[in-house]
């Protein structure tokens, strides 16, 4: 009986730790859509670490109301921090008047320059049409390649990496710290792309 309790006691403790940590510390998340391509792909499975310690360029999970007033979770990248002034000029980002390299956009910006993403977007005619008439890869909600945004205190400006198809802070506004659930720390599926962020 002692050995049974000893073996199962340890197992029960491990299970309890996993369940409690799942509730308090981490959460599984599934990517829904193409707004974070090519960094994250549709239906990839991720692990989110619950934290309010958010840094620029973190990939975060935020909540926003959907069309029916229910909460939906989105996965985006933090571009603007509280108090920042962001300026985009023909695919070049300036943060507080300092030029910033967005290396995570290189593949899609190069493809945009080559063929306006027509080969990459071959799976979606609407994406192809949008890219075909776009004057740049990063546009504001009025389809303009030059725009400036000032972020209020306590707010974060979130953008998808696939700027032409992402619905993000350009359309819905900035996100409060309370709306940010945590940041992505690990990709667990598919197995050929597993790894830490």
From TrEMBL:
GO terms for molecular function: serine-type endopeptidase activity; signal peptidase activity. InterPro entries: LexA/Signal_pep-like_sf (IPR036286), Pept_S26A_signal_pept_1 (IPR000223), Pept_S26A_signal_pept_1_Lys-AS (IPR019757), Pept_S26A_signal_pept_1_Ser-AS (IPR019756), Peptidase_S26 (IPR019533). One of its GO terms (biological process) is signal peptide processing. Pfam families: Peptidase_S26. SUPFAM superfamilies: LexA/Signal peptidase (SSF51306). It is found in: Cell membrane; Membrane. GO terms for cellular component: plasma membrane. It comes from the Bacteria. The keyword Membrane applies. Its main location: membrane. It is a single-pass type II membrane protein. The active site is at 35, 76. The chain crosses the membrane at residues 7-26. It catalyses: Cleavage of hydrophobic, N-terminal signal or leader sequences from secreted and periplasmic proteins. The keyword Calcium does not apply. Residues 6-189 form the Peptidase S26 domain. It is an enzyme of class 3 (hydrolase). Its EC number is 3.4.21.89. Keywords: Hydrolase, Membrane, Protease, Transmembrane, Transmembrane helix. Belongs to the peptidase S26 family. This is Signal peptidase I.
């Amino acid at each position: 009986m002692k050995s049974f309790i000893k073996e199962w006691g340890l197992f029960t403790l491990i299970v309890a730790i996993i369940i409690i940590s799942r509730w308090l510390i981490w959460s599984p998340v599934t990517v829904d859509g193409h707004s974070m391509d090519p960094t994250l792909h549709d239906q990839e499975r991720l692990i989110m670490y619950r934290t309010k310690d958010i840094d620029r360029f973190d990939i975060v999970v935020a909540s926003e109301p959907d069309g029916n007033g229910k909460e939906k979770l989105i996965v985006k990248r933090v571009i603007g921090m509280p108090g920042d002034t962001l300026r985009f000029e023909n695919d070049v980002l300036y943060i507080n008047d300092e030029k910033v390299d967005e290396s995570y956009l290189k593949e899609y910006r190069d493809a945009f320059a080559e063929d306006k993403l027509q080969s990459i977007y071959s799976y979606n005619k609407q994406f192809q049409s949008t890219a075909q008439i776009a004057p740049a890869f990063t546009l504001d909600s009025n389809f303009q390649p030059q725009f400036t945004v000032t972020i209020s205190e306590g707010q974060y400006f979130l953008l998808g990496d696939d700027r032409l198809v992402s619905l993000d802070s350009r359309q819905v506004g900035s996100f409060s710290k309370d709306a940010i659930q945590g940041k992505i720390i690990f990709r667990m599926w598919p197995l050929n792309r597993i790894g830490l962020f």
